[in-house]
User: Which sequence fits this backbone?
């Protein structure tokens, strides 16, 4: 990677320097960064993930298909739903299951909860202090206590949604292939309504507050890759699309993208088959699917000056809040229409097969989970009631993918 | 009184908090285990009068050393407690609550110096002994508090 010296702070211009940051602050997990500057030009940047691989692929092999969501949930304690639904989507793809609309809506609701808690934690507690030049995250509570109170209450709402739908806030236990173990009671879901009504205004408050920050003048023409769904802003399912017109099934991810190990890092590096780096996450989703946001979210985005195509990575904090606003509206709509489904899940007809599934993570740096791809498996008709004959996940995930810039860690 | 054991139960000495909390819960005390994510900690102690936190710490003497911190009086510095993997951990949560004027008035932290935080390891002997001491001490003070 190279850069002109205009982008470098004055002190480093026209110098030869090596900057080593052994611990990146206010990111989750352990990351490090080496920057080499020669004659004022950045000649090499190494982003190192130092945490060891966790081998989730190996953990999944040979296990019951039904274990996949709960095992992969352990990849991260902040964003388990992305991993659980990625795994569930893959298994359901392999078993040709199409869950009925009420189950899909409940899944979308719990995903909204995850986005709320994950986006708000990231924006208010980790990202905002950078704009304010604060050395410690807690100092923002001194500078702007109302903002922090609002953020904490929003985050709590996200956790509550996870508890109500998923059974608990960390590593929820109620999701399974085919649906849910238990249907959330109507009264419990309706209990979320008034707080969600408050949350819409609260998201706008945070968005407005963050819009007042000074944004460095920096733009990059990213290749944006995200999920897209024909009927809604893609959260829990969809095809993979790019800002240059790619539109593929999740299962075809390996045909168009590759991930490779590099010596200096334990996180794989992803590129297109043409060798180009690409952007995933909130900005990519926003750029690719802006028209599917609610009219109000679109209006608020315009009001704070977000362009239709965001190219400034610093503005990710604003995009996160626009998405937070959107998922609060979406969650409220789901809560209002909720009726207890007749059955918490659909029957799973276990058979050998291959499937792929993806999940869109809220705030994690990886954001778009590589497909979990069960391998075709030799069927044993006489034992086909056993899940061991079901898909064997050669899961393409759970490597030290950074979770919000860090190897996700189950705490 | 709410007792919060902070840490990961399967990462070596980081399990000190969770194990101590479970022991105290077995004795009928109000004790929970949390992973150390700051916002969840704040929500847990919101509106409470008395909080006791047990967490593994980095440094501060040989493994098994127990520091008792009166957080209501003493400011905490980040980096003291092991693995605030979300970068918004126990110290940040306490200081955020303090800045918001919401820190419970009685707030004690038992920081146990750990030796080995490797995933999959169990408590090292010095830390296991320290956990026993801390459990006895907290149980004792809880008993005293209950006496008329």
Assistant:
């Amino acid at each position: 990677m190279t850069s002109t010296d205009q982008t470098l702070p004055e002190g480093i211009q026209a110098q030869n320097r090596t900057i080593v940051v052994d611990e990146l602050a206010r990111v989750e997990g352990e990351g490090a960064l080496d920057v080499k500057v020669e004659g004022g030009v950045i000649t090499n940047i190494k982003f190192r993930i130092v945490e060891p691989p966790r081998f989730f692929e190996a953990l999944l092999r040979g296990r019951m298909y039904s274990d996949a969501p709960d095992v992969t949930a352990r990849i991260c304690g902040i964003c388990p739903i992305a991993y659980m639904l990625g795994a569930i989507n893959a298994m359901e793809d392999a078993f040709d299951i199409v869950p009925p609309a009420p189950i899909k809506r409940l899944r979308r609701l719990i995903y909204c909860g995850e986005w709320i808690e994950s986006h708000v934690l990231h924006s208010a507690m980790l990202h905002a202090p950078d704009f304010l030049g604060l050395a410690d995250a807690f100092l923002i509570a001194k500078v702007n206590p109302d903002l922090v109170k609002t953020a904490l209450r929003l985050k709590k709402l996200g956790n509550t949604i996870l508890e109500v739908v998923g059974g608990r806030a960390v590593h929820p236990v109620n999701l399974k292939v085919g649906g849910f173990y238990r249907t959330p009671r109507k009264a419990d879901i309706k209990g979320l309504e008034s707080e969600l009504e408050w949350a819409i205004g609260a998201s706008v408050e945070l968005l407005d507050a963050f819009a007042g920050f000074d944004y460095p003048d920096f733009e990059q023409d990213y290749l944006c890759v995200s999920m897209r769904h024909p009927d809604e802003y893609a959260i829990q399912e969809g095809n993979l699309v790019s800002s240059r017109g790619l539109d593929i099934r999740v299962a075809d991810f390996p045909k168009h993208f590759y991930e490779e190990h590099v010596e200096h890092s334990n996180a794989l590096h992803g590129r297109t088959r043409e060798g180009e780096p690409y952007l995933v996450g909130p900005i990519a989703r926003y750029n690719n699917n802006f028209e599917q946001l609610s009219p109000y979210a679109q209006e608020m985005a315009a009001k704070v000056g977000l362009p239709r195509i965001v190219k400034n990575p610093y503005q990710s904090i604003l995009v996160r809040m626009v998405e937070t606003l959107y998922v609060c509206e979406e969650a409220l709509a789901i809560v209002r229409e909720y009726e207890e489904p007749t059955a918490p899940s659909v029957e799973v007809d276990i058979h050998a097969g291959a499937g792929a599934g993806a999940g869109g993570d809220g705030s994690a740096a990886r954001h778009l989970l590589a497909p979990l791809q069960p391998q075709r498996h030799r069927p044993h008709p006489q034992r086909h009631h056993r899940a061991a004959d079901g898909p064997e996940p050669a899961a393409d995930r759970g490597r030290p993918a950074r979770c919000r810039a860090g190897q996700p860690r189950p705490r | 009184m709410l007792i919060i054991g902070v840490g990961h139960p399967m990462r070596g000495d980081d399990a000190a908090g969770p194990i101590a909390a479970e022991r105290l819960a077995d004795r009928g005390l109000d004790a929970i285990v949390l992973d150390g994510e700051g916002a969840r900690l704040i929500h847990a102690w919101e509106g409470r009068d008395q909080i006791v936190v047990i967490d593994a710490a980095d440094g501060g003497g040989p493994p098994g050393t127990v520091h008792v911190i009166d957080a209501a009086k003493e400011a905490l510095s980040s980096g003291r407690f092991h693995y605030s993997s979300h970068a918004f951990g126990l110290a940040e949560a306490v200081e955020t609550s303090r800045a918001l004027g919401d820190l419970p008035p009685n707030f004690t932290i038992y920081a146990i110096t750990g030796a080995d935080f490797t995933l999959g390891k169990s408590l090292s002997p010095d830390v296991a002994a320290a956990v026993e001491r801390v459990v006895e001490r907290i149980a004792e003070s809880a008993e005293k508090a209950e006496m008329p």
